[in-house]
Amino acid sequence: MANRGLTVLVVGSGGREHALAWALSRSPSVARILVAPGNAGTAAIAENLPLPATDIPGLVAAARELAVDLTVVGPEEPLARGLVDAMDRAGLLAFGPTAAAARIEASKAWAKEVMQAAGVPTAQARIVTTYEDALRVLEHARFPVVIKASGLAAGKGAVIVQDRAEAESVLRWMLVERGLGAAADQILIEEYLVGREASFLVLTDGTTVVPLQPARDYKRLGDGDTGPNTGGMGAYAPVPEVTPALQERILGEIVVPTLAEMRRRGIVYRGVLYVGLMLTPDGPKVLEFNCRFGDPETQVILPLLDGDLAALLEAAARGKLHEVTRPRWRPAVAVTVVVASEGYPGTYRTGIRIEGLDGLPDDILVFHAGTRREDSRIVTAGGRVLAITAVAPTFVVARQRAYAAVERIRFPGMIYRRDIALAEVATPTAPSTGSA
Q1: 239-243 own/partner pairs: CB under 8 Å, 24+ apart
Q2: Sequence-separated (6 or more) residues with CB below 8 Å from residue 349
Q3: CATH 2.60.120: does it fit domain 130-185?
């Protein structure tokens, strides 16, 4: 349905935004791609604009001045601040939820309320605002429990605690020492769910739902899920146990009721709805909702897409997703390994030269996250630096190709996990590419 010659603006600077720009560059309906602010990777395939992702007036002005046909918003913060609302007021088309709809991620407390009203399976939780109230809840807690900041915390606001002493320490840091700032104005003390996690993303215009391939990401810093939570150290797709039948169940029990409850509250959700799931013995349960494409899930999902991404995003933004053909998927799998800076997710150095990016095999996709160009060099500019993606017929081959590429990339202090998709190599056949 998209017209030929679209000018598309991608908002953000990470690996997700590079993957979006890359996929959009393959869309026959797209003529020009802008990225604000972008990174060294997006500069090679698009035009970077020196505008922060949170500069809402600047982004609206740029979209108007540059005759942007479609703005695609990557990060959660500009969505929660109302970038899509501002674009709408200016008569500009944007893909992503309004600020009211983005509360599904910006307020975990509100999201939990929506889920309870919709009858969506999720972990039981108590919401507190003071350290004293939290201590009273702990008196009846069965450990381990999960302590979550309700607000946006860059993927670092959830902590699994094993006993009361550890819980008190985390709660004191969040509620008394204000270690996460306003993100921890409300805290959820949540039941710990047992199972395997999966990320299930759908495109939606508020009514019609188009599922993407399920993915699994790795949130902990170290091998074997050790160390602190991060924004994500790697991912793979599809997830073999998320069968077409299970996808139908997730849509019927979780996605459709959630969107219906939001409509009941006068909120039409348009954009990507990211469902973070725990696949428990009792069935899928929601760990969290996000209001945008996942990172690094986007870097494994989009390389498997066989179709026009721009047409899908434009249709969703216009409320006409029912008019587009459902996406096809390549009969393959994808593995992404994130390369990060030493010290991440805490303090880390930047400005370090990255070597080995030239001469990688053609079948390797390198999505830049925290990089910038200095003269002829590409240097680090963030905690997560690169996402190396390989697509192959099996997880065995995809892992081999991804890690062989990682080993050719070098910069002082470079860190990465070595166990991405390791659990899947015992199943070397490609999973079904059917989508719910």
Answers
A1: 239/198, 239/214, 239/215, 239/431, 240/424, 240/427, 240/431, 241/196, 241/198, 241/279, 242/198, 242/200, 242/214, 242/279, 243/432
A2: 341, 342, 343, 380, 413
A3: no
pLDDT in tens, 346-362: 999 999 999 999 989 99
**Token pair listed for 77:** 């913060």
Q: Is the dihedral of CA 16, 197, 236, 378 positive or negative?
A: positive
Domain boundaries, the chain: 7-99, 130-185
Sign, Cα dihedral of 169, 171, 174, 177: negative
- Which residue matches tokens 């007036």? 57
Confidence of residue 325 (pLDDT cuts 50, 70, 90): confident
From start to end of 281-332, where are the E strands? Answer: 283-290, 305-306, 328-329
Question: What CATH number should be reported for the domain whose range is 7-99?
Answer: 3.40.50.20
Burial 11-41 (b: 16+ CB within 10 A, else e): bbbbbbbbbbbbbbbebebbebbbbbbbbbb
Tokens of 146: 């999960």
Pairing relationship of beta strands 6-12 and 30-37 according to DSSP bridges: parallel
For residue 328, the tally of other CB atoms under 10 A from its CB is 12
Q: How many whole angstroms from its chain centre is CA 50?
A: 23
pLDDT tens profile 8-17: 999 999 999 9
Question: Which pair of tokens denotes residue 24?
Answer: 């959009």
Please enumerate in sequence order all residues whose Cβ is within 8 A of that of 281, keeping only pairs 6 or more positions apart, or say none. Answer: 194, 195
What token pair was written down for 258?
Answer: 């959630």
The pTM for the full model equals 0.93
| SS3 state at 290 | strand
| 355: DSSP letter | B
**Range 406-429 average pLDDT:** 89
What is the rounded distance in angstroms from the CA atom of residue 182 to the CA atom of residue 87?
26
